[in-house]
């Protein structure tokens, strides 16, 4: 792999969780750190403050286990995907920006958070979610059934716009049912991963 090191013999290395795709930290590698990372499969950096090689986890045990390493289009920065063995930051957080390293499903994660917030607020007069939850899990489950039937009906028709509309309704209500049962998309992901061969 061609790597263009800077005038100090270093290249920035962006560390990304191979599963969650979250950026965990930024470090720097020299050629020796790069070679050691490839050889040991444990991400090793060149510490600019200590002026020596430093394998992440050498003291804490929170290693960054190498999954994949690639350079960018100009060959002057690295993207390193890892399986972290514990928190990445020395302060105990999942990344060096003080955040947990949890999966994010884009807008679906936002929607899960909105549902949780509306359920917690219990404002049944202003919130459809709170109103449906107040009627109990049977009503939430019934609504998922209704939306599933409507989605199937639209799937057999030729109106893609209505099919997508009903599909969105189904997914929204299914997210509500998951929460009513105490689960999230992460639990469904874990179940599917367990089935994957």
Automatic annotation (TrEMBL):
<protein>
    <recommendedName>
        <fullName>Histidine biosynthesis bifunctional protein HisIE</fullName>
        <ecNumber>3.5.4.19</ecNumber>
        <ecNumber>3.6.1.31</ecNumber>
    </recommendedName>
</protein>
<dbReference type="InterPro" id="IPR008179">
    <property type="entry name" value="HisE"/>
</dbReference>
<comment type="pathway">
    <text>Amino-acid biosynthesis; L-histidine biosynthesis; L-histidine from 5-phospho-alpha-D-ribose 1-diphosphate: step 2/9.</text>
</comment>
<keyword id="KW-0963">Cytoplasm</keyword>
<dbReference type="InterPro" id="IPR021130">
    <property type="entry name" value="PRib-ATP_PPHydrolase-like"/>
</dbReference>
<keyword id="KW-0378">Hydrolase</keyword>
<keyword id="KW-0368">Histidine biosynthesis</keyword>
<feature type="region of interest" description="Phosphoribosyl-AMP cyclohydrolase">
    <location>
        <begin position="1"/>
        <end position="107"/>
    </location>
</feature>
<dbReference type="InterPro" id="IPR023019">
    <property type="entry name" value="His_synth_HisIE"/>
</dbReference>
<dbReference type="GO" id="GO:0004636">
    <property type="term" value="F:phosphoribosyl-ATP diphosphatase activity"/>
</dbReference>
<feature type="domain" description="Phosphoribosyl-AMP cyclohydrolase">
    <location>
        <begin position="25"/>
        <end position="97"/>
    </location>
</feature>
<comment type="similarity">
    <text>In the C-terminal section; belongs to the PRA-PH family.</text>
</comment>
<dbReference type="GO" id="GO:0000105">
    <property type="term" value="P:L-histidine biosynthetic process"/>
</dbReference>
<dbReference type="InterPro" id="IPR038019">
    <property type="entry name" value="PRib_AMP_CycHydrolase_sf"/>
</dbReference>
<dbReference type="Pfam" id="PF01502">
    <property type="entry name" value="PRA-CH"/>
</dbReference>
<keyword id="KW-0511">Multifunctional enzyme</keyword>
<comment type="pathway">
    <text>Amino-acid biosynthesis; L-histidine biosynthesis; L-histidine from 5-phospho-alpha-D-ribose 1-diphosphate: step 3/9.</text>
</comment>
<dbReference type="GO" id="GO:0004635">
    <property type="term" value="F:phosphoribosyl-AMP cyclohydrolase activity"/>
</dbReference>
<keyword id="KW-0067">ATP-binding</keyword>
<keyword id="KW-0547">Nucleotide-binding</keyword>
<keyword id="KW-0028">Amino-acid biosynthesis</keyword>
<dbReference type="InterPro" id="IPR002496">
    <property type="entry name" value="PRib_AMP_CycHydrolase_dom"/>
</dbReference>
<dbReference type="Pfam" id="PF01503">
    <property type="entry name" value="PRA-PH"/>
</dbReference>
<comment type="similarity">
    <text>In the N-terminal section; belongs to the PRA-CH family.</text>
</comment>
<feature type="region of interest" description="Phosphoribosyl-ATP pyrophosphohydrolase">
    <location>
        <begin position="108"/>
        <end position="197"/>
    </location>
</feature>
<dbReference type="GO" id="GO:0005524">
    <property type="term" value="F:ATP binding"/>
</dbReference>
<dbReference type="GO" id="GO:0005737">
    <property type="term" value="C:cytoplasm"/>
</dbReference>
């Amino acid at each position: 792999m061609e790597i263009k090191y800077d005038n100090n013999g270093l290249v920035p290395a962006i560390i990304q969780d191979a599963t969650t795709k979250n950026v965990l930290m930024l470090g720097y590698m020299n050629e020796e750190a790069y070679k050691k990372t490839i050889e040991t499969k444990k991400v090793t950096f060149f510490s600019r403050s200590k002026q020596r090689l430093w394998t992440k986890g050498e003291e804490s045990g929170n290693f960054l286990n190498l999954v994949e390493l690639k350079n960018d289009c100009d060959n002057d920065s690295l993207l390193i995907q890892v399986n972290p063995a514990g928190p990445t930051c020395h302060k105990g957080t999942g990344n060096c920006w003080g955040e947990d390293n949890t999966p994010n499903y884009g807008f679906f994660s936002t929607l899960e958070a909105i549902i949780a917030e509306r359920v917690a607020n219990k404002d049944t007069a202003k919130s459809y979610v709170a109103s449906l939850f107040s009627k109990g899990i049977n009503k939430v489950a019934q609504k998922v059934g209704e939306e599933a039937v409507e989605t199937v009906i639209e799937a057999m028709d030729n109106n893609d716009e209505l099919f997508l509309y009903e599909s969105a309704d189904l997914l929204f209500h299914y997210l509500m049912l998951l929460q009513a049962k105490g689960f999230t998309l992460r639990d469904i992901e874990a179940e599917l991963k367990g089935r994957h061969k």
